[in-house]
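Appendix B. One record, verbatim.
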Amino acid sequence: MAEKIGKYEVLEQIGRGGMGTIFRARDPILQRLVALKVISNLEVTPELRARFFREAQACARIAHPNIVIVHDMGEDSGRLYIVMELLEGEELRHVIARHTELVFEKKLDLVRQICDGLHFAHQKGVVHRDIKPANILVLRTGQVKILDFGIAHIAGAATQRDLTRTGAFMGTLRYMAPEQVRGQADQRSDIFSVAAVSYELFTGRPPFSGSDPLQILEQLRTGTPARLTELDPSLPSALADVIERALQKDPADRFADLGQMSRQLELLRRELAGDEIPRARPSSLLGPPAQAIAASPTSAVDRTPMIHDPPVTSAMAQAFESDRRSSEDASPPETGRVQIPAIPRVAIGTAATLVVLVIAALYTWLPTAPPAPVVDKPGAVTPTTGAVRTEAASESSSPAPKSDEPGRSLAETPREAVSASSTARPSAAAVSPGTTDGASGPQREPAKTAAVGVGSAGARHDAEQARSRMTVARQAAERVAAGFYARNRFQSAQIKERQGMSALDKSDYAAAGASFAEAQSEYQAAAAEAPSEEENQRKLAALSAALDQAHAAVAGRRQQALAAQADQLARESFDRAQARQVEGDGLASRKDLAAAARAYEEAAARYGEATERARAARPAR
């Protein structure tokens, strides 16, 4: 018959570690396979039992793709056990020990998943305290699952009594934060441990190594591991910076939270991916030189999609040639401009583009000046400008000049165009004879939107300044771990920041600036609240520890009283002690920890008194 632990049928042992043994088991009620871990190598005291159930309940409330699911917990014949989902995968320590040639991107993805899972747990107020390769499971799909949440805290008392014990805690010491050795741990301790695991994943060796536990402890206190790039020059320097920051001895010098570290790794991944794009297609960036250069100026003058039409280059050459003949240029007409080499086409394209920009600027500015000086000074508009306008007319398929105007000079065309536009500006149909119907519309558009553009630039500048101030406030909040100690404020600020970024993407600069300002205020408030909240949590941790100790003491004294038959021989004292213990339970459920601890201490003293009276009342043998 199969062994049973609680209601679960044990099928086989599938793992063993310093904290216990893991079995494959079956839930007879739900008819599913589970992983059942039995806590071993620890004396099950009332204090340990209370801590176990409290930690297990907290971990069971965490639901994240990178955290193992806790189904159940219990005690059977003095053995504490926890029931989890059964997963098929391999511990990260085995992956590292095999020296498997994982690609860099895969290793980076594993670390990011660890950061994401732990960051989610930290936001729920749960700290792991024992991150190491043995507690990280890599599934066949590449998904990471973090195991043994809260187990280190459950064994905290035993760890403090015998921290340097050979065997069980050796693996933990290699990845333990310095402050955790001194009995102080928060989310930043997990950051240190994640960095230590990442260090070993990328280099194949732990940052702190040694055969003796005391040697490892000394390295944790004073040693500085070599940079990743010193051990493997092929690794990015940015990655070495991230790991080095997370491995700082002082928790305040590390990342504020694992979300920040994860974002840095994601930024590194994007940068590395971006570096590969230009190298992948250099020829496509250059393109065919003749066609690409010839098409560029044409698209600037003529709005029709002629970019891929090879005859455009010939038409432009003929237009320039015709302009020079009409200006009585003595130079002979050039022929065969289709065979112009690449360098002259660059010159033509650049000149045409510059001329178009000059035309747009002049058209914007000239209407505000008195029209008479402009008409009297044809030199204000160069013949080159007239050439481009003539070219624009020819390229837009406008009618050719009338035959009765053979002697019309190039300088007259821009003068007439300016006069027509200044006298009949409200009418879109009133255009100069030398321009097409569509030429005036697109050129007037910049004039209409110039003031709007200036205003938009100013609003965008204000929004960017507000964003910069918000970023400074966020960084200050992150330095004091406000995301952990002032979670509500920090999350509210993050929501406002996301709203601001969304408005900025939509060019709604006023809304973006307002959201960034609100986010800045929230980040500053979170930074102000974090130190006091951190102190409150430390006091709360101290009260919880005192409560655990008092609860364990009263449970032990009660067992002694029952063994001495105090419930029968000293019934009155026993009942007073039991009533005080029940009162303590009620105070603890209402979170009045200090009063509950005092009630437990008084109950323990009364149980002791009842035990003494029972022993005195027992007849001598």
